[in-house]
Every structure is written in structure tokens, then in C-alpha cells.
Amino acid sequence: MNDPIPEDIAVSADDESRPKTGPDAYPFDQSDFRAWLSGLTYDSGRRGLSAPSQDCAQEKALQTILTKISPACARSSDVVDALLEMLRQLISISNDARHPFQSEVQKLIDYYEMASRDYVKGGLAALASGSFDLLPPNEAIIFVRNCLFELFEHMRGILGHAGFFDTVPGGLKKVVVVNGRYRTGSVLAVNAVVNTLKAAGESTRIVYGDFDQIDRFIECFSLGAFEGHWLILKSHNWLPRAERSNVITLYTQRNLADVAASAMRFWQRNGTPEEVADENYVAFNEAHIINELFYQKLLNEYVVDMKSTVKIDYDRFYNDKEEYIRYLAEHLDVRLGPSEIRAASAMLEPLRAKQVADSIDGEFDERTLLQRRHVSETLGAKYAGLHVLSPRMIDALRKLGAWPFER
After folding, report:
1. Closest CA to 66 of 164, 143, 146
2. pLDDT tens digits, residue range 53-74?
3. Least confident interval from 164-173, 187-196, 229-238, 298-307
4. Do 189 and 236 form a contact (C-beta atoms < 8 A)?
5. Are the C-beta atoms of 174 and 105 separated by less than 8 Å?
6. Class of residue 16 by CB neighbours under 10 A (exposed 0-12, middle 13-18, buried 19+)
7. Contacts of residue 359, Cβ cutoff 8 Å, sequence gap at least 6
């Protein structure tokens, strides 16, 4: 996803001499490379591949991209050797359960291994060795060309999605995982983190994920993805498996009565008139929200305290966004002056968020992660919308010790 406050990292039109950074630094002409590969031949005498007579115009770009898979590819003497080194590295990755791409690469290797049995004696391992027999040569060389091209293209897509091409000078920063359950202000926390870092002159990138996707992006970040940026990972369903020096985890929480009311109002705003009037559908949503309340209570009281996590109390910062920015700046270890704090906090005002959410045409806004009609007329104020709660939901809150009133 794009930076909520986009930063100009591209080369300006009037200064083309400056080196390109970010995704533009990794251009690649797919059709030109495929055309070059069409000239790849098999030398039966030495049982190996021979490169086309003409130079590969994409050689430099290809080598640069392949080094994102493994630095070993940089030691290759030519394009053919680099592609075979790529294959060797992919076979190794497919057997390495610790590698973030293991699952995806294993599927690729399994597929092409099965296909290779009709053309390469000894399969992909033999092809990767550089010395092999093709059966029959005239048909098999077509498979080899396609196999190497398609594996490269698959990996280019995987690397791009994981952020390995979205890099700028500046070295590795840190990962901030905003791990908050539903309706607890997790989107507000993402924007607060981004505003804090931007005010400090830092570049950020946002990725949404859940469960092991978060761990995968953390591993990719450690391997060089998103270099030069702070990586902000937004999740509803993730818990840290271990403490990492380059990962800051923020856990957002909110009083459960407002969580219930906020969830109910959000459903009412986005449901059809028929759904909102359907008693069975209403009961289904209430049951779903009640289950979420019990789960949040469990996380709030037990799970989070087991890990080194920065807690973000929605109610604490609702009326003081400047204090919110100061609090985050301290935990992110960045320095901000009074004017910078004021500017960053102004972006978090609830009315501003409501205006953005109400103007969204699609499902959500990529710049802020706000969903359509995300913010209600109460603007998220404490206890301002509890009238939408049914007796059943109030009873559930009482059982949790989370109903703020006597009756």
C-alpha cells in the first residue's frame, strides 16, 4: 500500500542524472529478455547450454534483480550462469523452512520438477548443475527456455510484492507492527505512527496482513526489503513469537463498551435496510460482537503482558493527540519539536478522519486505511453511542465487568 503521506522518492524530470531509487531503480523489459532467451541452445557435445550470439540487453537489470534472491547470483560470470545459479538457490530455498519464501518457492519447484521429467534427465537438479542430457533435445530446449524465464518472472513478482524493489538509500530502519483488535483505534494508531515518523523526516511504507503474513514481512525486512523505509505492518490477528531488536509492537485497546457500540454502529451504517431490519441478522451480528468482546478481554489481560509490547489506550489519547504523538515519538526513539508535534497531531483529529471516510468511493482509502463510513457521528468519543446496545449486549458487558454504569 502507499504511504499515507506520500513522499517524493522518484527522480525529478529536470535532474535525470541522479540515480533512481525505489521501484524505478529496477526496470526490466520482459519481452526483450524473452526474445533473447529464444536464442538459447543446447550443446550436446558438452551437455550444457550455450548463450545466444548477441548480448543480453537486460543483463545488468537481471543480475541486479537476481541478487535480491541471493548474493550468490552476483558471482555469476554470464546470464546463463546467473539463471542456473538462480535455479540452484530456488531449490535450496524450497528446502529451507526458515526462509520467508519457502512455501511459494516449493510450489514452483515442485511444478517445474514434474514438468522437467519429460525433458531433462535428472530433473531440475541436473539442469541446475549445468551438465545434463535433454530428451529429446529439439523439444526439451523449449522447456528449458520457458522454465528459466517463468521462474525468473515468478520470483520477480514475489520479490516485488515483498518490498525488495521498494528500497532507498538510508539502510534498514525498523518495523512497527500495529496489532489491534477490531474497533480499538488501530487505524488511528497507524496514522499516528506515520505522522510521527514523517514529522521526524522519515520515510514509511504500510502493509496489511494477518497471522504468519506479518512474520513473513518481518523476515523479508531483515533480508533487505523496504530498505531505507520504516515498515508499518497493520494487523488484527497476530502475536509476536519472539522479541526482535528491529521490531516495535503496538497493541491498541479500548474500553469494551465502546468497542461493542462502535462495531454495532459500523454494521448499521454499512448494512442494507433489509439487513438492519432483519432480527435474525441482527442477532447474528450481536453474537459475533459478543465473541469479539470476550476475545479482546482475554488478550488485554493475559496475552499482551507476556511480550514486550507498547500499549496504546484509545481513551487515554482521544482528547490529547499531541500527547499521543509525544508518546509515540518516545517509543519510536525519534525527536520532535513543539511545532512538529502540533502539525502531526492535527492530522489525527476525528472530524478530519470522518471527512476522509465519508468521501471514500471504494471500500477503503489506501492512504489512511480508513474504510468507507469508518467514523460515526459520535467521532469516537467515549460512551457517546452506547444507546445502540441491546439488553443482550449490555448483559454480556456486565458479565465481563465492562459495563460502565449501574443500570
Report:
1. 164
2. 999 999 999 999 999 998 888 8
3. 298-307
4. no
5. no
6. exposed
7. none
Measured distance CA(70)–CA(47) in Å, rounded: 26
- Is pLDDT above 80 for 8? no
Which residue has 506515520 as its cell numbers?
194
- Strand 247-253 and strand 230-235: the pairing is unpaired
| Cα 310-313-319 angle, rounded to 5 deg | 130
Q: In whole angstroms, what is the distance from residue 252 CA to residue 314 CA?
A: 7
CB 58 within 8 A of CB 29: yes
Nearest residue to 166 (alpha-carbon basis) of 105, 106, 234, 220: 220
3-state SS, one letter per residue, for 323-373: HHHHHHHHHHCCCCCHHHHHHHHHCCCHHHHHHHHHCCCCCECCCCCCECC
3-state helix, strand, coil split of the chain in percent (to 5) is: 50, 10, 40
* pLDDT greater at residue 182 or residue 5: 182
For residues 203 and 230, the answer to whether their CB atoms sit within 8 Å is yes
- Mean of pLDDT over the chain: 89
Secondary structure of residue 229 in the 3-state scheme: coil
The pTM is what? 0.86
Domains of the chain: 27-161 (no CATH), 175-399 (3.40.50.300)
Rg (CA), the chain: 26
pLDDT of residue 407: 56
**Is 336 or 138 the better-scoring residue by pLDDT?**
336
Q: What is the rounded CA–CA span in Å between residue 10 and residue 8?
A: 6
